[in-house]
Amino acid sequence: MTDMTNGEGRRGPSFAPWLSKTLTTLVTVAVTLLGLLFVTFMIGRVMPIDPVLAVIGERATQAQYDATYLELGLDKPLLVQFGIYVSDVLQGDLGKSIRTGQQVTTDIARVFPATLELATLGTLIGVAIGVPLGVLAAVKRGSWIDQVARLVGLVGYSMPIFWLGLVGLLLFYGILGWVAGPGRLGIFYQGIVEPITGMLLVDAALRGEWTVFRDAFSHIILPAALLGYYSLAYISRMTRSFMLEQLSAEYVITARVKGLSEWQVIWGHAFRNIRIQLITVIALAYANLLEGSVLTEIIFAWPGIGSYITTSLLANDMNSVLGGTIVIGSIFVGINILSDLLYRFFDPRAK
Amino acid sequence: MKKNFVAAAVAAIMSVGVAAPVFAETPPNMLVIANRIDDIKTLDPGESFEFAGSDVSRNVYEKLVNFDPLDLDAGYQPELAESWEISEDGKTITFTIAEGHVFSSGNPVTAKDAEFSLRRAVLLDKTPSFILTQFGLTADNVEETIKATDDRTLVLTLDKPYALSFVLNCLTSTIGGIVDMASAMENEVDGDMGNDWLRTNTVGSGPYKVVEWKPNESVLMDLNPNFHGDKPAMERVIVQHIQESATQRLQLERGDIDVARNLSPEDVAGLADVEGVKVVDELRGRLMYFSANQKKELMADPKVIEALKYATDYAGMSDSFLKGQYTVHQAFLPLTFLGALEEKPYSYDMDAAKAALAESGFPDCGPIKISVRDAQERMDIAQSLQNTWGQLGCDVELIVGTGAQTLDRYRAREHDIYLGAWGPDYPDPNTNAGTFAVNPDNSDEAGATGLLAWRNAWGIPEMSEKTLAAVVENDTEKRKQMYLDLQREHQKTSPFGIMFQQIEQNGMGASVENFVAGGATTEVSYWVITK
Questions:
Q1: List of chain B residues whose C-beta atoms are within 8 Å of the C-beta of residue A216
Q2: Residue A189 in 3-state DSSP?
Q3: Model confidence band, residue B392 (pLDDT cutoffs 50, 70, 90)
């Protein structure tokens, strides 16, 4: 029979590194988020804009001004104000937005799914086209397809998204009528689908409302394609350069000499080795889109988190800005952790 | 297998993507508007003080007296109050509440609701409350001064005998909206008289009720089934937040919206040849002006100010980058207001400007900083001033900031020249006279940041008295004359260079009739619109 003490003794050392790694990650996450909040909070407080006026407007009386000043807790030292804010956040209270009059959590629950949906679809498009294009460009280096990939990348880098968005809207909505106009949903379809996730495509699919799904898709496809194009430009360029590096490596020559098919050489060997770098690139591109693309959101009247934070910042609505910062900060941290996990999955050495 | 799946997926995506929008135009009983509505903070009439919020409020809440959208010039008309009487001492106004008005909740409108709503507006003490408290109504005295003596009689007792037109004009503003007491109190939290609930819900007796408001996204309004008046043709109104003018224009051309409310001059011009679309101009109440801080030595010289007023290219600006958006106007009351002065004594005249400057204490002018917010039209105006004032020999620098930054500096009296806009708070001449031409105590301690005259450190005890005399003058003709005289004096002596009055250009479907944005005095009225 097994000796119980020995057994426990064996488990101990294998359990401890896992625990300490998790703890370290948690502490890092907490410190990162706290630091981020601290900086954002201080920027909000030192900005040359009066937060009281942002609430009450320029016509208010001095008495109303003073009352609001106290209500916002601005009479307390900055660090105390920050302490109060953090303790509220820990209790799930992000405060009220002065711009919308609603709880910041309610606002974010409304605007973030819109961005998440758009960014996810955009990234999917970017990956689905960008990765094969990059690989092809590397394999057929110098060929016409490489030139096309380069041109696509160049246009993606140099065209202002604002302009491209307007032209896209003019062409596909205004002239051709292939897609629906700005906004997330046509006026006839609003209020039909009871929200579950807040992402219209997902909700409509879950509820089986396919006409709403069609309309939502018709609205999202153009802005998503636009964002997808910009990530595509980045992803294909990076994929191409990663692949070129691999293709000139000795193991590839060895594989070819061994008589492996070109397909196996490219996808089975070279591509396998760039997966990890690619994950980083895609994760970054995704995180970038999740921040919200302000200009795209403005042109397509897409009520996402990018324009929410920007408009809030200009109106000195700091609760909303801080709330948005927490969400975006958490996403960056989350995506980092996720890509860490994926590394381990794809790269045996990282285990 | 794999190939088949991909082909099927591509075909599915194509079929969805290529599908044209189902409807080419909006339904006949529905009005779809594109507008910038990100300024709405609240729907509570006791608190709402923003343009888009007031637009909603006007269509949801009735007031004791109100403007007829099809005859704005007629001034206030009976609405919830069918008649009113003023006491001999001029301090007590007795309103008789009309019968038959019903809130969207189903409760009838009584004098008690009016008492509750007006008291509530004073007690909440939100930004617009000054519109009522300026009549001596305070948190301490509302029980006596705002009183429903029975279900159909409301008595207002003021601290002084004000001009009746002044009081009634004020009651037409958003804060005069009458809410359903029962519904508000059912939703009261911590003694807020329903404030939190009414921020996102509406319960008025007007033609519409708000079904849903998504901040920065849309406002959806349906008919109030209990509305006492004729049933409006537009049974549903959707206002979508569309920031971009070009986007609004595209939607209008496609027939996806009926009205586009924020078209740039370029897009208005672009619509000229588009069939099925028209553009309707309307004069609004907003003024564009520059003002000089009298704390600065250079700015305090009246001859320098005169020179600057002559060295401003009013017509040049209104005929070029402001074309269709602003018209030249030089008095502090916007046209269509009682007593608005049409005279324009200043035109671009470099000789007159140079002559005035030569007579001043600063014949070589000097450095001038223009404080301006980073909005296109204001930047354009500031650059024009920089150019023409520069020709006078002034060394003009633009200090550009966000709206809030620029305003902070203005309120702290730190600017040289402030370039800004002012819109009336309520449709009575005192709304502008009371800020452009009142500043009895110019000391820093007075802190009268609400007064534009104080912000420019322009101490005017005498003119303040004249302005205050006009608010208690009950003979309307005399009152009008008093404002005309005040504006003439103001044009000559004040450090304010009033330049333009706003024109709103709304693009709409050719069949849309009776779209009235509200003129200079009120807001949009959806219930009279047909298409």
A1: none
A2: coil
A3: very high
pLDDT at B24: 54
Give pLDDT, residue A219.
94
Domain count, chain B: 3
Q: Per-residue pLDDT tens for A227-265?
A: 999 899 999 999 999 999 988 888 888 888 888 888 888
Beta strands B218-223 and B326-328, pairing class: unpaired
pLDDT (tens digit, 9 = 90+) per residue, B465-484? Answer: 999 999 999 888 999 999 99
CB contact under 8 A, B247 and A181: yes
Strand partners, B271: none
Mean pLDDT value across residues A269-289: 88
N residues, chain B: 531
Nearest Cα residue in chain A from B373: A314
Q: Do A178 and B18 touch (CB under 8 A)?
A: yes
**Whether residue B302 has pLDDT greater than 90:** yes
Q: Is residue B511 part of a domain?
A: no
pLDDT score of B148 more than 80: yes
Enclosing domain of residue B495: 283-504
- Examine residue B322 and state whether it is found in any structural domain, yes or no: yes
Report the alpha-carbon distance of residue B151 to residue B110 in Å, rounded: 5
Predicted confidence band of residue B5 (pLDDT cuts 50, 70, 90): very low
CA distance B144 to B363: 60
Higher pLDDT, B483 or B41: B483
The predicted-structure confidence for B223-281, as pLDDT tens digits, reads as follows 999 999 999 999 999 999 998 899 999 999 999 999 999 998 889 999 988 999 999 99
B126 with A64: Cβ contact below 8 A = yes
Residues of chain A positioned with their CB less than 8 A from the CB of B403: 314
Chain B positions touching A179 (Cβ under 8 A) are: 17
pLDDT digits (tens, 9 = 90+) for B352-365: 999 999 999 999 99
Query: Which residue is it, tokens 């000559």?
Result: B492
Give the other-Cβ count within 10 Å of A188's Cβ: 16
Q: Do B247 and A299 touch (CB under 8 A)?
A: yes
Domain topology for A105-350? MetI-like fold (1.10.3720)
Last residue of a domain, one of B182, B206, B230: B206
A2 vs B227, which has greater pLDDT?
A: B227
Contacts of B342 (CB under 8 A, 6+ apart): B331, B335
Amino acid at B80: L
The position carrying tokens 């208690």 is B472
Amino acid identity of residue B168, one-letter, is L
Task: Collect all residues of chain A within an 8 Å Cβ-Cβ radius of residue B30.
Answer: 187
Neighbouring C-alpha atoms within 13 Å toward the C-beta of B207 = 20
Per-residue confidence (pLDDT) for residue A215, from 0 to 100: 93
Check A60 against B199: CB less than 8 A apart. Answer: no
Q: If you compute the radius of gyration of chain A from its CA atoms, what whole number of angstroms results? A: 25
User: Of B17, B253, B408, which has the smallest distance from its Cβ to A178's Cβ?
Assistant: B17
Q: How far is it, in rounded angstroms, from Cα A271 to Cα A138?
A: 11
User: Which of A124, A161, A187, A217 is the mutation pick for testing B, counting most B CBs within 10 A?
Assistant: A187
Alpha-carbon distances of A173 from A168, A181, B255, rounded to whole Å: 8, 6, 12
- Asked whether the ipTM of the predicted complex exceeds the cut of 0.85, the reply is no
Query: Could you report how far apart the first and last alpha carbons of chain B are, in Å?
Result: 54
Q: What chain A residue is nearest to B195 in terms of C-alpha separation?
A: A101
Question: Looking at the structure, do residues B465 and B386 belong to the same domain, yes or no?
Answer: yes
pLDDT surpasses 60 at B4: no
> Tokens 């002018």 appear where?
B365
The CA distance from B160 to the nearest CA of chain A, in Å, is 21
Residue in A62, A218, A301 nearest the CB of B240: A301
- Where exactly are the structural domains of chain A? 2-90, 105-350
Domain-embedded: residue B521: no
Among candidates A107, A187, A214 on the partner chain, residue whose Cβ is nearest the Cβ of B16: A214
Q: Is residue B72 part of a domain?
A: yes
